[in-house]
Amino acid sequence: MPTTLLNATDCDDASAPDPNQAAATAATNPARFISKTEVLDRVCASYPSVWLWMREGRFPRSRELGGKAVWIENEIEEWIVNRPVRRLKGDR
Q: H-type helices in the chain, by residue range?
């Protein structure tokens, strides 16, 4: 199943987490669950894409809480911060 493409306005790059801030936040805040809606907003992907990534082991697996899928916030933040930096034309 292909990844859903989003418009530039669907995902604000300015809200991308700073790796240093994410590490500091993880160290000072206890783990908390986040909903499927919040995960999809943070990673700018459709649920079918996230589901496929989980099946392939490329995304943190969800937990079950009250019959609903939830994720541990720190695991999602770590996944976001560890995305590769895209090369630009002219990079060597």
A: 19-28, 36-43, 47-56, 73-81
Domain that includes residue 56, residue range: 28-85
Assigned domain for 3 exists: no
Q: Which own/partner contact pairs does 57-64 have at CB distance under 8 Å and 24+ positions apart? A: 62/36, 63/33
Residues 18 and 60: their CA atoms lie apart, in Å, by 20
Count the Cβ atoms, other than its own, within 10 Å of residue 69: 17
- The pTM of the full predicted model, rounded to 2 decimals, is 0.67
Per the structure, how many domains does the chain have? 1
**Residues 16, 80: contact at Cβ < 8 Å?**
yes
Return the structure tokens found at 91: 């990079």
pLDDT tens, residue by residue, 64-80: 999 999 999 999 999 99
Q: Does some domain include residue 12?
A: no
How does pLDDT run across 5-28, given as a tens digit for each residue?
A: 444 345 555 455 566 666 666 567
